Protein 1
Amino acid sequence: MEKPPASTISLPTPRVYTVTHASNTYDFRLFSPASVSKATYYIDNNVLRPSAPDVAVRLGHDSSSPIVAAARFHLFHSDFHACIGDPTDAGKDARPAHFEKVEKLSRGLMHSRYGFALDGAKYMWVRFYSGHGEAEAEASALSMGNMRLVQDEGSEGETVVAVYISASYRSVKKKGTLEVAAGTSVDVERFVVASIMGILEKQRRRRAGSVKTPGRENV
């Protein structure tokens, strides 16, 4: 399959993805309104293959699609690393995959914060309970799964880059909704997807902490 090229193209309009459970209990698909029958991204959550990324973001509908971003976890650490590109591709024409640390900045469950730096800019995922603006209008104050990604603009304050809204517990198929702001480059969007899906997968493994997989991170 042809490898997707590196891209710094900015997204002209906000991208809204519906995150749904795949047939595999641990995997997910991200659908855009423009393509409700074929997913834009497939989230391949690995719990059995020690050499593979813990989270692989695949550009396409299923687990055979090419990897465009990934996350790796570490034993007994809340932090993890994410990258743009395919870290499993060692071919001479492969795009180098440089991992960046996604650091958990707070230890409290109610106010989780994860920070990372990408291309010289600083970002932070922040848990929130009450929505602000159209993107967060459907957020439930009772949910602990809502996250807002902000970029530190220094003296100019913060800019919201993405918002993840957790679906109602009554929803069987839908996991949540991810909105990425207009003007976000394709590469940054892919890192955004890898980082938020990494956070969600770590939370799932923490809840299922009694199930241990040799050689993998479960906390």
Protein 2
Amino acid sequence: MRGEEEQAIVHFTSARDTFKGRGQRMYAAQCTLSLGIIQLDQDNLPAAESELQSAMSEFEALGDLWGAAQCREYLGDVRIRQGDYDSAEKLLVSAQEVYVQLGAQSSLADCHWSFGTLYRDQGRTLEAIESFEAARNIYGLVGYQDWVAKCSS
């Protein structure tokens, strides 16, 4: 899997450079977000944070609320892994507010999952269970059965 992720980094970096060269800022920002997610998946938190901050700034400059909210959610995940729970919660709340406003149900479910992880890591068991249940319910509504099962385990 690591080799596939490294190959994806090369491709997204190349695509981002091409889009930047063409002045296609939205596509470049999407590539930067993808790079941040890959770095997060690889547990390379400094690189993930840098890419996600950059993407968030670009999405905000473009007025893309959903793109910026996704960056906040993933930055929240970075903060959880760093043990910076207060910052993580603020980022997740900010993302959640946008997802609710936009009616982005699958993104809202992902956010609830992140809250569950945050609360679990803090020993806030009841809040974690509530968050995982909320995620499971939304995943069920949008038809993501694999994620329903993941939330139930």
